[in-house]
Amino acid sequence: MSGNQLFVDTYWRSLNKTGEELCGDRVQVRRGEDCVVLVLADGLGSGVKANILSTLTSTIIAEMIVQGMSLTESVDTIIKTLPVCRERGIAYSTFTILQIYYDGRAFIAEFDNPAVVCMHDGRVFHPDRLERDIQGRRVFLSALDAVEGDRFVAFSDGVLHAGVGMMLNFGWDQKDVEKFLEEHVRPTDPPAEISRILLANVNYLYEGKPQDDSTVACLNVEAALETRVMVGPPLNREEDVLVVNRLMAATGKKICCGGTTSEIVARQLHTEVKTDPVDLMNLDAHVPPKGYIEGVDLVTEGVLTLQKAARYIARAAGDASYMEFFLLTKETDGAALLAKTLLTSRWIRFLVGTSDNPAHNAINYSPISLNAKISLIREMCEDLKKTGRIVHIEMY
Questions:
Q1: Three-state SS at 370
Q2: Helix/strand/coil (H/E/C) assignment for every residue in 136-203
Q3: Which residues sit opposite 244 in a β-bridge?
Q4: Taking the chain (396 residues) in consecutive chunks of 10 residues, what is each chunk's mean pLDDT?
Q5: Which of 155, 222, 295, 347 has the maximum number of C-beta atoms within 10 A of its C-beta?
Q6: How far apart are CA 228 and CA 238, in angstroms?
Q7: Cα dihedral sign, 196-201-207-209
Q8: Which positions ≥6 away from 214 have C-beta within 8 Å?
Q9: Which is nearest to 195 in space by CA: 223, 167, 154?
């Protein structure tokens, strides 16, 4: 990972129209090797039909872009494909597309949705918008260079309709939303909090009974600090210094897993491994005690700790509410801390040694094998990707 790379954190949530079980808005987020794509689609009407239309629209657009089609080509294709309601003369689904590359290039496309709110250092800015006619329909395109601290907030028109005929005569307009975000969003707020704040006000204006589906999607551009995890000794001992240098060059957290691995790291750093005395006193712990190496953020036992951490991560990948709960727990054993560190990292790189661990050779009945360990790490990486992390594996 180059030093000038960025990470894009994303989050979205919706309020369903009162009386509807399904939301007519849909957001798709796809992460490619070099960019993240977010598509917010708003299906015509509400309920099942709108949900199907918005799901198809957002899925098709996101997939086209991730598979290599340019944003403008994707817009052309979907506009020419979307059917038009004969009665109203409008498309069956509107959409907003944001594509942000990890080198900072950013592109926005808007078709009949409210304009994306762009912010930096708590203030709204307005990038140039190019109007383009496609099949008689107006599409607005923007291109800009995103930097650390930029935020992009996209939303469906249900947000602007909030309060119409209720608390407000005509709802609130784009400028009102921009002013609200400037006044209420703090520099440290993650995308989840920004989405919550805006939708909470929308629900308030609707007096708790939304008259339209309302969706908010937020993207935060952050520094891409990379957590590195060294697991297992390299195949060739001559590479010990190379791998340890790779570990210590991490811009984010530095993690070492395994007794033999810890000894290698300590030897290269001209120090020693110490065992956490608190863990040693916990006789009921189901995870081996943590260690300590000066300069390394987390030192754990190997496979047993990885197995339990993998279970935490797998459950978090399939249940967002569990992930929020787990990150708030006070568990401090090696597996919990490893899982929490990985789930709160943005970029992760595993440095996996491919040597048979001599510590396992003494255990004749041990079910642990190199292939099983590598398979476990790969499964963990796939689950981490499901949570939005960007993960790479290097073998040594």
A1: helix
A2: CEEEEEEEEECCCCEEEEEECHHHHCCCECCCECCCCCHHHHHHHHHHHCCCCCCHHHHHHHHHHHHH
A3: none
A4: 76 94 94 92 88 92 92 89 66 90 96 96 94 88 96 96 70 90 92 95 93 96 93 94 96 95 96 81 73 96 94 95 92 94 95 77 54 93 93 95
A5: 155
A6: 20
A7: negative
A8: 14, 15, 25, 155, 156, 158, 159, 161, 162, 199, 202, 203, 206
A9: 154
Determine contact, residues 25/66, Cβ cutoff 8 Å: no
Taking the model in full, what pTM does it have? 0.78
Copy the structure tokens of residue 68: 């290599």
* Cross-strand bridge partners of residue 26: 41
Cα–Cα distance, 204 to 363 (Å, whole number): 63
Alpha helix (H) residue ranges in 40-128: 47-66, 71-81
- Name the residue among 128, 88, 86, 91 with its Cα closest to residue 111: 91
Residue 7 — φ and ψ, nearest 5°?
Answer: -115, 145
> For residue 352, what are its two tokens?
């996996």
Q: SS3 sequence, 270-297?
A: CCCCEECHHHHHCCCCCCCCCEECCCCC
How far apart, in Å, are the Cα atoms of 304 and each of 24, 252, 310, 323, 337? Answer: 45, 24, 10, 21, 14
CB atoms within 10 A of CB 328: 8
Closest C-alpha to 215, from 152, 174, 158? 158
